[in-house]
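Standup notes
- DV: blocked on the single-chain target, sequence here:
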Amino acid sequence: MMTLGFVRPAGWAKGFVVLAGLASITIFAAAQEPKIKLDEDPPLATQPKSGGISGKITFTGQISRLQALCRATQKTYEPAEFDKASGKFVFKDLPGDAAYDLIVKTADGRSIEGIDLSPNDARLLRLSDQRRQQLGLPPERRHEFTQDDAKALADFVAKMKDFMEIRRVLYIRGHGMRAAMLVELMRTREFHSSGGDIVWRVEVWQFQEHLGGWERLVNTEQVLERKRIKGDEFKAVSAEYYPQLSIYVDGEGKSSPVEFAIPAKTDPSCGRPAGGDCELKTAPHILGVGSTGYVPASRPASGPAGKDGNASGQNK
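- DV (later): unblocked, structure below
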């Protein structure tokens, strides 16, 4: 029987000893190296606390319902307490680090809503600014929002040519190099399969300053209202928007108290009064002139025209 033997190459034993020696040296050296302590930065995004909103809304007529709407999640909340006689209310257990638009319905058919005019990426902007400070990096490029900026945005809408032949800007809110706009859009002319219907939409648009001009950010629009309705039915439509009814609950669950008096009559510059003409001629409310960036507000705005230069959720 033939057997196969293993032939060891010459010098194999010496080579094995050398390799074993090198391995021992490496292990010894690693053991002698000083230990490096790794420090982790604290997380920027912490779990926000739940909080609430309280205040008083007065009206010469009768308020039939009050709700809080988070447009980011489309969730609505009922007040834990609401005295219709005095207008005092309390909302509880609202998720923090979020904006809530108060929705008021009156017995005579009016709809009064808060409108959040923050940048669509407001939370990311806050986190980015915190991270820059944490790392000692320079802040984001600044741009002071001016009346000329607001005019450029209004002119952009006026010169648009698309399916909607009526476009009316209600609010422009500047945040330095960013801006938000509340705009009403209508199609009253005949179109394919229109059947005499009117198309009516209310949307929030987002803009950003770039190389001295403004560009609309695509796919960021937020649709508040969208109806295809007969002309006679459209006359009953009523919608009003006020930034001071948009309240930010911060990460600690805190918010500023609300004090708001519903106007006796609908202001056409703040929305659409029932029975009004399709093409209303109103000037937009300009907010945030002089701002250089986005910062969550510590209090609601003072009025629709933003006399203090601030709107809910934003300030200098």
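- Follow-up: Residues 1-7, 297-316 have pLDDT under 50 and may be disordered.
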